[in-house]
Write a structure and sequence with these properties.
Chain lengths: 539, 500, 113
């Protein structure tokens, strides 16, 4: 890697960390937070420069971390950095949110950028923790019961996912004792590890929690509904892509592993369809987008699963492109919700067409970035079953996004106030950018001309038409689905948690009894006997 | 002549290290009054320099330092020895005790026109006595000196609990003393049995002679159970929560951070230095199970405490459980034992610094707000930012999130448990982390929320900085170079290779 | 049954009785007496270890005797400290009870003191 790229790679993390250090000094805090939009610029530059370059690493001396950039990582880094720049500049342009929001934003940004460049297990885990945990401060510190509940559930899943991933990483490291600390080397040793299946199960579970795969999907709708518009945009855009990069980095895609691959594919498809089904019951556009994220991440997961089962190494770049497109579109959609709520007028004419193209690009409508994404992911869905299911999920997405368009004027009251004025002013540019930017990036994946062939165009058009038609049919038949509370399956988890909490007073009473002298004394003698017995029985 | 029987180069440093706090006690007692405080503050940096010198000497030599007292080698005389883990503990003790001295100046100073106050004089002398006891524990080379050192440390720690004279603290101190005495008398019985069998108590000599016979098992069980009572491992933790929660903050920090580690250190000495060749899978498993129970029960109880200092005390009960997971993970001469050993030592250090910092912060919080009820902390972070940053970072280490020493310890424990095929031990480690996240969440979330809080008195910046410095050391422990893990293996029997 | 073996058995019995007393009796002074009983038992065991370890020309091994003397001093210090605490507790509160539930103040809503 040439010197410029190395320096920019280090600066990707150094810049936000320097701003964080500046925040520690009270006098500089406001300016440091206002300048946050500058921090992702090195990341953006190094991502763009390395879109097609060979993978390369930089070892940091004192900290013992390795930074690594390969084409999938560079692609995701570039678009994520762009999102952070735009969002930060807009939020801090006309107002200064309070320091807690600002520091949480900066910490989440650091983690989000770091996750794409981390090259060894510890720095990846650290970045992953940074992108998950400080996000709490973006929405849950207010005195609102709904937000507090969303925050608590979000934290529970974040911490639980971290724990599962830590065990997965320990199993990875133990299975590759000679490999050193670099992720690439360790994962290369995974197919031969004695604990391969357990490790893969843990990795899928851990990253699945981040991606909102069934049965861990309840937190995402609650989170995006509770979060203010800018926070929802960055979390749904850059935040969950940490799960995508995790799957890219940690699944050994070169070796065909049938069992794990098929399991991941099944979970992915189930999430894709459950996401659509539950999303159709929602009225709040933010929740609909959340369920759409669940569905889209399910598609990505299914593609990963099929790639793992088939041993397709090139899937990483294709699916990174799919993820990058989703990042741009989803964050733009959240910002558009806010902008339209602020404007207050009904959508018609060309704004309607623009928003419609943006929303339906997730279903693959032609000439949008979404169509390219669908084309990029197509090689993974090669088998008969797989391609059929993929087509069905496109139809489902189109149905869901048309449903979204129909409810776009149903935004919550606060959405208008939460959206920065800069976003309200430039929202058409954002929407257009999200649709067109993937065309510039597609050269990293494949030949652009292929996307413009008639077969590809028809392939993208008919599921969208069918899905949109289903919404019209739904209206004509007046078939309204009953609204399910946001977070669906979460109530099961909450009930189980309440059950667990009832153990508390019992435990406390037991402890009080243990702390009486006679009990403690007898236990002391029993400890002596236990140690003695254990020692003698080994002879 | 066996290894470690003669005075090696640099051995004089060990005697100086032992004499320094003892000289401090004598001078404090003789000069009395406010000079006790001045003597302590003067000796603290000297102690730190000596500790670093010992560590440097051990690192340079690559093998343990030894000093035969009076020129008489064991088995006739007794020896002081400093190996890798001793030197590390010596430095950690010096840093935390110095921090406690500086922190306590505000509360235990002798007022202007008064010649001497009972509580001030007692506090400074007792804290130096704890320091002296800990120094001999880490440097002592034979079991009986270690017994004496253990008793010195306990008798100095007990009055620290009740130094404010309230009835509740007196009861807590009395329970602590009586339970600790049970522990030490069982330890003494074990010592008698060892001497009866082998005619010597020197650690290096015993290591050569001891074998797996009935007397050794009985003695080891008695001594271990006694030390478990002093370390407050579940289910023998009855004395710890009230004692640590009601002591003054500086004393709590030293009690939670160092005093319980002293008796744990002796358990390590017995099993890893005297009896490393014994087939100790059974007792290791028993200790591991008790440790796991401690983690789960301690963390669960911490979740239910209404007072901050009690929550931190129960968190200590849980973190002590992590310490005992070193036994199933490091016993024997396997390739993964080194990882387990590193995990145990890292946990000792990370917990010592993080817990001391948290107790300091809790003390500052209690003084500023007038109470330490968690339910009334709404919006407190705005009023006490530095204190809550320290509490948050300390919580980070307790939860085991990077970058921190606690994460390093947890990561090494998980790697050792997977590599050794004992996946079962990863469960308490992970569940403990989840529960720790729960009680840290309990403290931080209301504090970070909206709310107005009026302070009784503003916190002193200097004392906040001391707490912050300790927690930053706990975080820096997460970045230890591989050389550190080689260093702590110096002098350990059956040390093989270094962790990957 | 030589005197040495008898003494060692008596020592073991004292240890057992002392441990029983420590566990069962609630009053701190009784616990202290029980602790001293255990201590005496331990020292007897030490004494018999001394007898067994006698080298040629000496009736007893001097090292365990030195340990017993140190142990007696330590036990004495421990007893003095415990008695001082009990006296102070009685002086400040008028009662001596180790049960934590007795000392929980009404405004303290935790079950631990």
């Amino acid at each position: 890697m040439n010197a410029l790229s190395s320096a920019l790679l280090v600066a990707t993390l150094a810049a936000p960390l320097a701003l964080l250090a500046a925040c520690c000094i009270a006098r500089w805090r406001t300016s440091a937070l206002a300048l946050q939009w500058l921090a992702p610029i090195p990341g953006f530059c190094v991502g763009v420069l390395n879109l097609t370059a060979a993978p390369s690493s930089v070892d940091l001396p004192v900290l013992g971390f390795t930074l690594r950039l390969d084409p999938p990582g560079a692609l995701l880094l570039a678009v994520a950095a762009l999102l952070w720049i735009v969002a930060s500049a807009a939020v801090w342009r006309d107002r200064s949110p309070d320091a807690r929001f600002g520091v949480s934003w900066l910490l989440t940004m650091t983690g989000s950028l770091g996750v794409f460049v981390a090259g060894d297990l510890v720095s990846f885990y650290l970045s992953y923790a940074l992108v998950s945990i400080p996000a709490y401060g973006l929405f849950a510190l207010a005195d609102d019961a709904a937000r507090k509940r969303a925050g608590a559930i979000y934290m529970a899943f974040a911490i639980f996912g971290e724990a599962v991933l830590l065990l997965a990483f320990a199993a990875l490291a133990a299975g590759a004792p000679q490999a050193g600390a670099r992720i690439a080397d360790i994962v290369a040793a995974l197919p031969d590890s004695p604990w391969r299946d357990a490790t893969l199960a843990l990795l899928i579970a851990g990253f699945g929690m981040k991606l909102g795969m069934v049965p861990f999907n309840g937190w995402m709708p609650l989170n995006y509904t509770a979060a203010p518009i800018p926070a929802a945009a960055v979390l749904s855009g850059a935040g969950i892509k940490a799960g995508v990069i995790g799957l890219i980095r940690f699944l050994p895609l070169g070796t065909p592993i049938e069992a794990a691959g098929d399991a991941l594919a099944v979970l992915g498809f189930v999430s894709a369809f459950v996401g659509v089904a539950l999303g159709l019951t929602q009225r709040n556009p933010k929740s609909i987008l959340a369920y759409s994220s669940i569905s889209q991440m399910g598609v990505i997961a299914a593609a990963f699963g099929l790639a793992l089962a088939g041993g397709a190494h090139a899937a990483a770049q294709d699916l990174a492109f799919y993820g990058a497109n989703h990042l741009l579109v989803k964050s733009a959609l959240f910002l558009v919700i806010g902008a339209l709520a602020a404007k207050g007028t009904r959508l018609r004419g060309w704004p309607l067409a623009l928003v419609g193209a943006l929303a339906l690009s997730l279903a693959g409508v032609p000439f949008t970035g979404g169509a390219l994404a669908k084309l990029a992911a197509k090689p993974q869905f090669a088998g008969a079953w797989a391609s059929g299911l993929a087509t069905l999920s496109s139809i489902g997405s189109a149905w869901l996004m048309t449903h979204f368009l129909a409810h776009l004027d149903n935004s919550p009251r606060e959405a208008a106030a939460e959206t920065p004025p800069a976003i309200v002013a430039i929202w058409p540019a954002l929407a257009l950018g999200a649709i067109l930017l993937p065309w510039l990036l597609y050269s990293a994946v494949d030949d652009v001309a292929k996307a413009l062939q008639p077969a590809a165009l028809w392939d993208g058009l008919w599921p969208v038409v069918l899905g949109a038609g289903l919404v019209l049919a739904q209206r004509r038949l007046d078939w309204r689905l009953r609204e399910i509370p946001v977070g669906d399956g979460i109530v099961v988890y909450e009930a189980a948690f309440k059950r667990l909490m009832t153990l508390g007073p019992g435990l406390e009473a037991a402890d009080a009894r243990l702390r009486q002298w006679p009990t403690a004394g007898v236990l002391f003698l029993l400890t002596i006997l236990a140690l003695l017995g254990a020692g003698l029985s080994a002879r | 002549m066996i290894d470690g029987a003669e005075t090696t180069q640099g051995g004089d440093l060990l005697v100086l290290a032992v004499l320094l706090p003892v000289a401090g006690i004598i001078f404090s007692f003789v000069l009395g009054g406010r000079y006790a405080e001045r003597v302590s503050i003067c000796l603290a940096p000297l102690g730190l320099v000596l500790a670093c010198a010992v560590a440097a000497a051990v690192a340079h030599a690559g093998k343990p330092l030894a000093y035969a007292i009076g020129g008489l080698p064991p088995p006739l005389g007794i020896a002081l020895r400093a190996d890798g883990i001793s030197a590390t503990m010596l430095v950690a003790v010096a840093i935390i005790v110095s921090a406690a001295f500086l922190y306590a100046r505000a509360k235990f100073d002798t007022p202007e026109r008064i010649k001497e106050t009972r509580s001030a004089l007692t506090f400074w002398i007792l804290l130096q006595a704890v320091w002296a006891g800990l120094t001999i524990i880490v440097l002592g080379g034979d079991l009986f000196s270690l017994y004496v050192a253990l008793e010195v440390m306990t008798f100095a720690a007990v009055p620290l609990v009740c130094i404010d004279g309230r009835p509740e603290t007196l009861v807590a101190a009395l329970r602590y003393l009586l339970f600790a005495l049970v522990g030490s008398i069982c330890y003494l019985l074990g010592v008698a049995l060892f001497y009866g069998s082998y005619g010597t108590l020197d650690i290096a000599l015993l290591a050569q002679k001891a074998g797996p016979n009935l007397v050794v098992w009985v003695a080891a069980s008695l001594m271990t159970a006694g030390l478990l009572a002093k370390t407050a491992l579940f289910p023998l933790h009855l004395w710890l929560p009230p004692a640590h929660a009601n002591a003054p903050a500086a004393a709590s920090a030293v009690l939670s951070g160092l005093v319980v580690k002293g008796s744990f250190f002796l358990t390590l000495r017995i099993w890893f230095f005297i009896l490393p060749t014994l087939p100790a899978v059974g007792p290791s498993t028993v200790l591991g199970l008790l440790g796991s129970a401690a983690i789960l029960v301690g963390s669960a109880l911490a979740l239910r405490q209404p007072r901050l200092k009690l929550l931190i005390a129960y968190s200590t009960v849980a973190q002590i459980g992590y310490l005992f997971l070193v036994f199933p993970l490091a016993t024997g001469a396997h390739v993964w034992s080194t990882i387990g050993w590193s995990a145990g030592v890292m946990q000792v250090l990370a917990h010592a610094f993080a817990k001391a910092a948290m107790f300091f912060s809790a003390g500052l919080l209690a003084e500023s707000l007038g109470h330490d009820q968690i339910g009334r902390l709404k919006g407190a972070a705005r009023a006490l930012p530095l204190t809550f940053v320290t509490l948050g970072l300390g919580g980070l280490s307790l939860m085991g999130l990077p970058p921190s020493g606690g994460f390093s310890a947890k990561w090494l424990m998980l790697r050792a448990s997977v590599a050794s095929g004992q996946w079962i031990w990863s469960a308490p480690v992970l569940v403990g982390g989840l529960l720790a996240a729960g009680y840290v969440y309990r403290i931080l979330t209301p504090a970070l929320g909206d709310g107005e809080i009026t302070l009784k008195s503003p916190p002193q910046r200097g004392r906040e900085v001391i707490a912050l410095a300790l927690v930053l050391i706990a975080l820096a422990l997460g970045f230890m170079p591989p050389g550190f893990f080689d260093f702590i293996e110096i002098g350990r029997p059956l040390a093989a290779g270094r962790p990957a | 049954m030589t005197p040495a073996v008898l003494a060692a058995l008596v020592g073991a019995a004292l240890v057992g009785l002392g441990l029983y007393g420590l566990i069962v009796h609630p009053h701190p002074l009784r616990k202290l007496l029980a602790f001293n009983l255990v201590g005496s038992g331990a020292f007897l065991v030490f004494g018999m270890v001394a007898r067994r370890g006698a080298a040629a020309g000496l009736a007893f091994d001097p090292v365990p005797q030195a340990m017993v003397i140190t142990g007696i001093v330590v036990a004495f210090a421990a007893s003095a400290l415990a008695v001082a605490l009990v006296l102070r507790l009685f002086a400040t509160s008028g009662r001596v009870d180790l049960d934590p539930r007795v000392w929980t103040r009404p405004d303290d809503d935790s079950s631990t003191s």
